[in-house]
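Justification of computing resources. Each target in the renewal requires a structure prediction run like the one illustrated here; the chain below, 161 residues long, is used simply to show the kind of job we budget for.
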Amino acid sequence: MLTDNALTDPLYGEIEGLMSAIGLRTVEAVSSVHQGMRSMRVVVYKEDGEVNTDDLAAAYNLIYPRYSIIYSDRDLQLEVSSPGLQRNFKDCMEFSVFTGKSVRVYSVPESSYITGRIESADSSSVTLSDYLVEDRNEKGDRITIPFSDIAKAKLEYRWEA
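Resulting structure tokens:
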């Protein structure tokens, strides 16, 4: 199931503020401690193109100095990456980050996957345009799916035209 806590997470908010300064969006920001080492994983997205190595380097160079001081009592391991072509969604907020992208969601009431382009998302649902209910081969212009009905979701990438 998708979580709904990224927007209330202080780490996510801080990282999103840093990333917006360099034209990136934060998809995920996670921090954990394991065997005395602090690990951070940050996933970033660029709305107007693909994330490249220069974008990842800029994000790393902005995050690492700040958090190496904040977490000065532990060694810091930082991973900054792009979401990939077929990212599995972890939080409902990701629908708003990926507006305009194709997505594949599993709808519990429909007992089927629904594919479509994310038209909009609010705090409780996502609206897909040009959707397809895969099991019934039912197509339509627009469908709104409450987040509570979504068991899982991921970016949809068509390998073949």
